[in-house]
DNA sequence: CTGCGGATGTGTACAATGCCCACATTAAAG
DNA sequence: CTTTAATGTGGGCATTGTACACATCCGCAG
């Protein structure tokens, strides 16, 4: 397809840079991603990426945007996998699981200034959170709605952040999921009744 | 005292580097902190810091350690400021308030690999969390203790992360504190007994 | 007091990086 | 076919992290 032409022009360097950058990020930490390394991996000169991204932050923002879309899709998928009471648990597990599976990307999405400064990334983040909010909206009486929504969101995000930071350890994935279930049910059980 | 001698030797360069680095971090984002800028601010040659920190990550870890100690102290102080039921609310407000007041440092503490790799920093983080854990221990029956502790911690940490990310807005500090109180009381209020 | 050794700070150096500029190539619009 | 804008190349610059060799100084043994 697009890989069959080694000519002067790449074909879709923009996308190639994005995937190269995501690969690099997955292989190491944030410092592994340099514009020049991305260019090398895409088989292109060090400056070529600048034709598609005004600066490094723009590339990082594009990566974060992709990350938010993937996270959103994972949440939506989890939301369809169970009956009502379990849905939020599954979404929490999916949220944390995404972080575990893509730690450096997760850190980029929530830790790097670029996600705040780029409107496209902020929009993707908002979309992602809207999925959580919709589910939470079905779980609680109206008068507690706002506080509960905020709390549930914070709970899930905090779980993810702490697990990613190694502050909460688990032997394997299923132990982790069990822990998440236990925590979420304990915390939400208090509110539900 | 130690600032009165402009001679060849600095006196306490180790501490000077730490405070210079913390100043730089407070003035901008993480990228503002370069070893060379730290050296400049301390009025010393670019390589002098290497006599006290083996590499840049070691300096960052020292900064994170300091951050955890300050956060711990803020939590301990909050814990003494009210009667039993309010203590956890005040601790949550202090936790988020620390993040608001030191966003870049907070990001370092919870986002950067150095806090995982340096034992001293990990220890400081554990100490900090122990303060939260102790308070939580008084709020809940033993069989729910683990899940509740994790949940409460995640809740507070998630609140801080979301507020810092601009995902939860508040007009001013007292509106923010009110929101935190509302969320915390909703999530764990009626279980106190 | 002398001189000596280890701790601390300086200088030079190098590779890598982000980014700027001028130039080359090419695909597509006229 | 010609022109033109998009895309990729090459060279260059300042900054950064860090290694190595040298300078300076504090404290201690004689």
From TrEMBL, chains A, B:
It comes from the Bacteria. The keyword Transcription applies. Keywords: DNA-binding, Transcription, Transcription regulation. The keyword DNA-binding applies. PANTHER family: HTH-TYPE TRANSCRIPTIONAL REGULATOR RUTR (PTHR30055), TETR-FAMILY REGULATORY PROTEIN (PTHR30055:SF220). Residues 34-53 bind DNA. Transmembrane segments: none annotated. This is TetR/AcrR family transcriptional regulator. Residues 11-71 form the HTH tetR-type domain.
